[in-house]
Design a protein that fits this description.
- This protein is an alpha+beta fold and about 100 residues long.
- The longest helix has 17 residues.
- It is about 40% helix and about 15% strand.
- A two-stranded antiparallel ribbon has the order 1-2. A two-stranded parallel sheet has the order 3-4.
C-alpha cells in the first residue's frame, strides 16, 4: 500500500491521493466484519524510503484505525523501501496472516 508521505506544518502525513486508498481498504474491512467473517485483516505496507523517520505503514495505521479498522486486525509491513521489496515482504506475511504479525 505504500504511497509516500508528506511533511506538513502538522507533521508527517500520507500523501493526499493515498487517503482514498485508506478509505477504500477500511470500507472493505468493514464489509468483511459486517458479513460475519471471523478473520478480517488489513495489511498496510511501506518502510521509510524518504528517510522521514517513520515507516509509511506506521504512519498510515492511525488513519486506518480512525476509519474503523481494529488495531488488532492491522498487519504492518514496515521494512520495504520499494515495490519489489514490498511484494516480497507481503508474500511472506500472507500465509501467516492469522498470526496477526
Amino acid at each position: 500500500m505504500g504511497g509516500r508521505t508528506d511533511r506538513t506544518y502538522t507533521g508527517l502525513v500520507p500523501k493526499k491521493d493515498l487517503m482514498a486508498r485508506i478509505a477504500a481498504k477500511a470500507a472493505l474491512y468493514k464489509e468483511c466484519r459486517a458479513a460475519g467473517e471471523t478473520t478480517c485483516r488489513v495489511i498496510i505496507s511501506g518502510g521509510d524510503p524518504q528517510h522521514h523517520g517513520q515507516a509509511e505503514a506506521d504512519n498510515y495505521a492511525p488513519y486506518m484505525i480512525a476509519q474503523g479498522v481494529d488495531p488488532a486486525d492491522l498487519i504492518r509491513e514496515n521494512k520495504s523501501l520499494n515495490t519489489y521489496q514490498n511484494a516480497q515482504n507481503v508474500a511472506s506475511i500472507v500465509p501467516h496472516a492469522d498470526d496477526k504479525g
